[in-house]
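INFO  loader      accepted 1 record
INFO  loader      residues=94
INFO  predictor   begin
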Amino acid sequence: MLLGLRASDDRNLKLHNLDWNKKKIKFLQKKTNQSLELPLLDDVGWAIIVYLKNGRPRTKTEVIFVNHKAPYGPFKDTNSMVHILRKYMSLAGL
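INFO  predictor   done
INFO  writer      dumping tokens
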């Protein structure tokens, strides 16, 4: 999770939601349908850059975090992205 976002918001985060110049993340929350603006912290920004350059499979989707099994693309609402996040957060000691 980025900054404590819900998994549904992480799953739907798109490249245009990141304002690199103002260091902000702006999006519409899926659950509440409310607009939210959060700081784009340096470590989060760098982690996203490294993921986009080195970890993310090539795909045309604008969604940032994609499934790493073919067909590469956005996670479906039925995917349990939260379980994937928990697994790797645990492995990272977070």
